[in-house]
Amino acid sequence: MQNLLEQGEKITLKQWKAEMRSLQAEYDSIRKEKSKTTTELAYAEVISYNKKNLERELQNESRQHNRQQSKVEAKGGRNLMIMR
After folding, report:
1. Spacing of C-alpha 75 from chain mean position
2. Are 4 and 11 in contact (CB under 8 A)?
3. What pTM did the predictor assign?
4. pLDDT tens across 20-62, in order?
């Protein structure tokens, strides 16, 4: 189609309709691919968020466990002093 326009030739209605069908099919294909890519990107963003959130929660649990261990050890040391 572009060649015909560049050469100055006239485009028939049949050629125009055929070009429109071709372009519409290409557009539909691109739109489907874009939709699929957008969905995959959303999945990746959710996975990334969930990973960061899990890491944060695990760190918090580890800190809490360490605090509890420190308290138990501190109480254990006091109890030994009292028993003596």
Report:
1. 47
2. yes
3. 0.56
4. 999 999 999 999 999 999 999 999 999 999 999 999 999 999 9
